[in-house]
Design a protein that fits this description.
Oligomer: single chain
CATH architecture of the largest domain: Up-down Bundle
Distance between the termini: 25 Å
Radius of gyration: 21 Å
Number of helices: 20
Order of helices and strands: HHHHHHHHHHHHHHHHHHHH
CATH topology of the largest domain: Growth Hormone, Chain: A
Length: 468
């Protein structure tokens, strides 16, 4: 009974907080037109409203994991959630696009602290591997529901309260999460040997600078031109800092990212295909948000409803992914999902956006279903492909890759829209690239995963690997 009383607040706190973190990656898309009207921002500024959050989130996930092991999951969780709450309030009252972007970046910092901490809290609160795996599955599934419902929730809030409410609504939810976690005192877990050494500050700085420069290059290229000295210099600096990051990680005795993880084909394949999946999916969401409102004249609420064919398929895929994996194996299922996504992107090219909405909406469920199948299956296969002592680092790299893919997807899609005379032309180019990348990702996964079993050769450690 005592254990149950301690577990319930942790379950609610971690689930609700993770939902708002994921919700904020997609809820803003339906508010872009209102933000542009009220705060006078162009497409590049709107891109940064979206990408500032995912950029800082992706860049600091590994840092959040390292700090969790050093300072304790409960402390970092509360710190992260408090940071997220304060940043959300700041965004809600931001008087300009520039300050809104700053607030979004701080939101990403809070998210990067609380996501690894919430997983560690689950690990500490559910010592039984089977129960812990079930809770982690629920935690991941709720994140999928939040991501899928973002456009509709955002549309309803904007319609009845105003665009600032999409940020202010986070504040009471964060305070509730802090209150729930303060009711329990989970034991602090022991530092994991893989990341318990000296903090890799140089590697973290190099990773952040490289990622920021890459996004600056992609976002600014339509304005300056791809051959301009500014963009060439930015890309050169991106390459230099990326090489510096690899050099730092290769020479340190306690690197933030042990590079030998990438010698495992299954791990490397999962990282790359997860990045591609996020790149294409979040790029599409950004395109659709502008298409529905700017070219088709939809209101925010109508835009949220227009997203439904895409978003309702996401929870459905999460619900059936385990059963389908057991039947087909991760190799065939993920390849099939990427082919399904590619078919959806190519089909959308033919109808977007001049045909009736009913016809336009037909390919959207296929894309949503594919995305919802790829994420849990690649996560499970990845955790089974690494040693138990490195499962936490592997999870951090995988999640960072997904968030990085989301950042680059929005940046690239916005650049394509800005480089064409109409949203339709830019979107068709974006869809063509998304379809081709999906097909390539399916081929990479087929080659990388040597086994078509659910957990490969490491089945005996699957429950622990999910939550270590």
């Amino acid at each position: 009974m005592r254990s149950c009383k301690r577990q319930r607040p942790v379950l609610w706190a971690t689930a609700v907080s993770y939902m708002i973190v994921i919700l904020d990656t997609s809820i803003v898309n339906v508010a872009l037109e209102r933000i542009a009207e009220k705060l006078a921002g162009g497409i590049a500024a709107l891109q940064w409203v979206v990408t500032a959050y995912t950029l800082s989130f992706a860049s600091l996930l590994l840092t959040g994991g390292a700090l969790t092991d050093r300072l304790g999951a409960r402390s970092l969780y509360i710190c992260g959630l408090a940071t997220f709450a304060l940043a959300s309030a700041f965004c809600g009252f931001a008087p300009s696009v520039a300050l809104l972007v700053v607030g979004r970046m701080v939101q990403g910092v809070g998210a990067a602290l609380l996501v690894p901490a919430s997983l560690t809290l689950i690990n500490e609160t559910w010592p039984d591997p089977g129960a812990r795996a079930a809770v982690v599955g629920l935690w991941t599934g709720l994140g999928g529901v939040a991501m899928a419902s973002g456009p509709l929730v955002g549309g309803m809030l904007i319609r009845f309260i105003g665009w600032r409410s999409i940020f202010l609504v986070n504040v009471p939810i964060c305070l509730a999460g802090i209150w729930l976690v303060c009711r329990v005192s989970p034991e602090r877990s022991k530092p994991r040997p893989a990341i318990a050494g000296k903090f890799d500050l140089a590697g973290q700085v190099a990773a952040i600078v490289s990622l920021v420069l890459l996004n600056l290059s992609v976002i600014s290229a339509p304005h300056y031109g791809w051959r301009s000295p500014v963009i060439i210099g930015c890309m050169a600096a991106t390459l230099a800092t990326g090489v510096a990051f690899l050099a730092i990680e290769a020479t340190r005795t306690d690197p933030m990212v042990p590079l030998n993880l990438f010698r495992n084909a299954a791990f490397s394949g999962a990282v790359w295909v997860s990045m591609v999946s996020a790149f294409t999916f979040y790029g599409l969401i950004f395109d659709l948000g502008l298409l529905f409102q700017r070219q088709l004249g939809y209101s925010p609420l109508s835009t949220g409803l227009a997203f439904l064919p895409l978003t309702v398929a996401v929870p459905a895929g999460s619900l059936f992914s385990k059963r389908l994996t057991e039947r087909l194996g991760p190799r065939r299922l993920v390849v099939g999902a990427f082919l399904l996504a590619a078919g959806g992107y190519f089909s959308l090219m033919e109808v977007a956006p001049l045909r009736p909405y009913a016809l336009f909406a037909l390919p959207l469920p296929a894309i949503g279903l594919a995305a919802s199948l790829i994420t849990p299956v690649t996560t499970t296969a990845t955790m089974a492909s690494v040693d138990r002592g490195r499962a936490g680092i592997a999870a951090g790299v995988l999640n960072a890759a997904r968030q990085t893919g989301a950042v680059l997807g929005v940046a690239w899609s916005g650049a394509l829209l800005a480089g064409h005379t109409t949203i339709r032309e830019g979107m068709q180019t974006s869809l063509l690239i998304a379809g081709l990348l999906s097909a390539v990702a399916g081929a990479i996964w087929w080659r990388a995963l040597r086994s078509d079993s659910v957990y490969g050769d490491n089945a005996e450690r699957r429950p622990a690997a999910v939550s270590e």
